[in-house]
Every structure is written in C-alpha cells, then in structure tokens.
Amino acid sequence: MSYSGGGRIVLNNQREAQISRFRAWVLLAVPLAAILFQVYVPQFFHFLSYLELPLLVVVYFALMRRSPIQGLLIGALVGLAQDSLLGTKNPLGMFGIVKTLVGYFAASVSVRFDVDNVLVRLLLAFFFFVFHQFFYWVMARALLGQQVGFDLQQTLLIGLLNALVGISLFHFLDKLRETV
Amino acid sequence: METFLNRYRNLTVLLLVILAQLVLLAVQVKNDQDVRMIRIWTVTAVTPAARVVEWLRGGSIGFVRDYILLHDTHQQNRQLQSELNRLKLENIFLKNELNTADRAKALGVFQEHTASKTLAANVIGTGAGANAKVVFVDRGSASGVQRGMAVVTPDGIVGKVTAAYPTASEVLLITDSDFAAGVISQKSQVRGTLKGQGSPVCKVDYVPIGEKVAVGDWFYTSGDDRIFPRGFPVGVVKSVRAGQPFQEVYLEPSGLQRGLEDVLILIEGVHQAIPDQPVANQPVYIAPPLPVADQAAAQPIAGTEADKLRAQYKAVGEAQKHTFGEGPPGTKPPDFTKLGSPGSPPPSAPGSPASAAPLPVPAQHQPAAGASPSVKPSPPKPPPAEAPVAERPHVE
Prior knowledge:
The structure holds two protein chains of two kinds.
Chain A: E1 21-22, H1 24-44, H2 53-65, H3 68-85, H4 94-110, H5 118-142, H6 152-174, E2 177-178
Antiparallel strand pairs in A: 1-2
Helix pairs in contact in A: 1-2, 1-3, 2-3, 2-4, 2-6, 3-4, 4-5, 5-6
Chain B: H1 2-7, H2 9-28, H3 37-68, H4 73-113, E1 117-126, E2 134-137, E3 150-153, E4 156-164, E5 169-173, E6 180-185, E7 191-195, E8 202-208, E9 218-221, E10 233-241, E11 246-253, E12 262-268, H5 292-298, H6 305-319
C-alpha cells in the first residue's frame, strides 16, 4: 500500500477509500500535543497563535479514518478539550461544536477524495479552516450575542498559512500510521 | 425505527453530539440579565408551544362554555330583555310620578298663597279641531265650574272655561285666535288686549305707539275683562315692532311653558297686586314639614277652607256617632247647629248655584297703581262661596 499519493483527486467508488489505522497512543498524544501547543506556545511566540493545530489534527484524523462518527467524536473531544483550556471566559462547547462539524464533514468528504493527494489535503485544510473560523463567528454572534467581526481577507490568508502548515503536519502524521 | 437509525446513524450521532454540546453551552452562558441561556432557550422553545396548548385549551373550554353549556342563554336573554323593558317602563312611571308630585306641590303652594278660591283640575283631552287651542279638564259643573271662569297655573294664566259640562269643562287656551284678555305691563303699566294667534306666541294689541314696552317686560292680567282677576302673570315680551296705529307686541305665555297637565280653575277670583319682580324671580317660602307626632293631629285641619270645613263636619258627625255615606235616603242627618268654632261660617247648602255669585272684586283691597309692591296686601279671605268645593281637589 502506497501513501505517497497518486495523481487522482476524486475516487471512483467508496471501495477505493482506504482506512488508515493509528495506535491508541497516537490518537491520544497527537491531539493533546496540538492542544498544548495551541494553548501555551503562543504565549511565548505570538505569531504562532495564528496556527490552529487542533483543527488540523481533527481534519487529518477525520480524513484518514473516513468514518463520520469517529471524525465527529474526535472533533468533539478535541474541541471540548480546547474549550476547557482556554479559560473560564470561553464557554465549553464553542470549539467543540465547530470541530464536531469539521470532523463530521471531513470524514464525509474523505470517501470521495483521495486524501493522500497533497493538493486535496491543501484544499481541504484551507476549506475547513475557513469553515471553522466562519462557523465559530456565527455561533459567537448567534448563541453568545458577541459583537465580533469577521475579516475575510485575514481569514483567507491565515487559512492558506494553516493549509501549508497542515501539509507538513499531515506528512509527519502519515509516519505514525500503522501499516497493514 | 431501527432501520431509520441505522440508515441515518452518522447524522443521528452528529445531531446528538451537537445537541449535547449546545446544552452544555447553554448551561454555562448567561445573557446580559444574568439568566442562563439554557433557561432562555427552554422558555423560548416552550412558550410558543404552551401558548398554542393554552389557546387550544381556552378555545375548547370557551367553545363548550359559550356554545354548548349556554343552550338556554337565548331564553335568559329574553327574560332579561323583558325585565329591562319592565324596569324602563317603571322608571318612566316613577319619573312621571315625581313630576306629578312636584306639580302637585307647586299647585298646593299656589293655592295656599293666593287669595282666590281655586279648584284643581287635570287636563284630560284636547280639542278635535286642527287649529283649536282647546283642552278639556276633569272638573265640570258638578264641581262648581261655570262658563267664563279663568283657568290658571302657578306660572300664569292658561285660558278660560268656554263650556261647563257635568263632569268636565272645555277650556279655551290663551293661544287660541278667539281668546282675548286685558293685560297690563309690569314696568310701565301699559294696558293692552291679549289675543291668541293660533301659535305658541300671543299678541298684545292696542298698545299705543310711544308707550314704553321692551323685550323682557312682563305682562299681567289687568282685571278689566272681568274674567281674570288683576295680578296674574301672563307672559314675557319676546318682540316689539312699531306698527300703525299700534305697536305689535308679542309675548310668550308663561302658563303654558311647562306643559299643561294640572290647572287651577278660579272659582272666586280676587284681584291682587302686580308684583314688583317677575314670577320666576320671586322667592317662594315653603315652611318646613311638621314633626311626625304633630302631623297626625294637624292633618284634619290642614289644607284649604274646604278641608277645614270637612274636618268640622266630620268632627260633628263623629260626636253624634254618625257615619257619613251610610244609611238610606231620608236618614236623619247630624245636628249641624252644634257646628263650628266662633267665626266659622256655616256651610252653604250643597248644590246651590255658584254662578249667581258675581266675581267679587273688593275695591278696597285693590292696590293702587304704583303702590309699593314690597308690602304685599293680604286681602282677607272672601266669604265662602255659596257653592263651596265639597272636598279638596284631587291633585295628581
């Protein structure tokens, strides 16, 4: 089985969609590390606050597992953990709901695309980052009544940056997959 | 159901997870008024449903209450409507009774204060002619009414009796075109002849040009016509126009302003002074009522001369154990030689014609023109008529 990715972007059928497997500690350690990075590293390197590593991890595992339920559960757990570590002013559930939807939709689209393709990964990472930011903004306004703004250009730019970082992260995480 | 869940398992799990996190979010978050979002969402979600349920419940109960349980509402409505109509009629009746009582009180006061002997009567009908200003009263020749007697009210003259029947009389109103009476103005003592016009306004004729008659002046009877005693109010001047060879003075009769239901027939007219003030402005003194204990004792002798006479006759009858109105014809009457206190005139024989008595005009009591009206002469009571009123007139 090759994980280098071919020239195809869209799969012909769902049978071609291969399910990647990970060790249990990988499923625990990687999201935890991403959350810790998200929480603590920006305190020392502020420019790294634009990186949304938990989101990229959720997208990666959802794409690789190709299971919507597993994807949404991973997203929910990572999101709730992120909410828990962001302080008491951030209510539990905001990142949880958003990342649940991201994990679900990422797993749902993974059965149609060749997620080993670099371009697909780049596009999906970019798309789900924008979706994540936009839906969080909608929920903040609708559910919390917060008058927060949404800078589309900045979101697109940061999304592209995260997508590029995501390509590298995904390549690194590919090394942690179990081989069948 | 199981098939449905299996088919949409992913979506179901997604919705459950999202819902759980929404609940978690709602439990934590509070709005500006420190109310948790879950409470707001719950109330917002439940209230419309509760409102719908309450609307359905209220509508159902209202439908049952308004349309099913009120099957006899129509009958109750009819009963209430009937009762309402009855109460309206009763209210009108009571108002009429009150007005009648007021008029009767006014007539009573007037009877007590006027020197003329009067007989109260009720108007029971009007004349049949279209232009005739004629009414019928319920007193006739049997009560001593004769043709030519004056008919007045406390407010002014009304007319004169043109025909006396046994139980009723015909009264020609002063608004009739055939009516005429001598009048005199209050301020300038201008004499004239009152004539009816067939309309609510009467005309004072034969007032020479140059005589001072102004709008608002009061006219009183002058006594020249030998029908109306001097000093009864006639009306107030409404317009004065210069004419040839006399002024055209129109006045509004004061005796007909408050309707015509109860009148007084002057059985014996007595001239009196023309007051200084109009009738409406004259103060009327009404004595306070007697105490309850004294009313019973004072009752028999209160009222007119006829009442006093009646009380005296009744006392004589009771003293001789005679009950009036009982016994066959020919029964021995009481001994009336024992009647009366000193000074009380003996009653005249009933049924003697009063028409033979001319209108008493005691010249010695006529006030001179220009006499001070503040000192109202109190003419002595005229001698009892030969045809006295047997009983006090019934005033309703």
